[in-house]
Amino acid sequence: MSELNDYRTPEEAELARIFCEVMNLDRIEREAAYLELGGNSVSLYLILEKVKERYAIDLDPQLFFKDETSSLRALATVIARQTAVLF
């Protein structure tokens, strides 16, 4: 998996860890899009469950399929914004 210091925020690092674990990846770039990584409905379900478990939020699954929000960086930004509202 990528080194934690490759990522700019804790959310990016944690989401990268989740993606790598669920999708059996060694590394994920910040701008990598979910579908380009080989994402499917099963991996999406598992990722959403792990994000919910870790952050206590429900991400909209459609975010993973929109060009502007499907990258690791963009998804991590959504997580950061949603969790900031909670705390």
UniProtKB/TrEMBL annotation:
Domain of life: Bacteria
Coiled coil: none
InterPro entries in UniProt: ACP-like_sf, PP-bd_ACP
Domain Carrier: from-to ranges: 6-83
Membrane-spanning segments: none
Pfam families linked: PP-binding
Record SUPFAM superfamilies: ACP-like
Protein name: Phosphopantetheine attachment site
Organism: Trinickia caryophylli
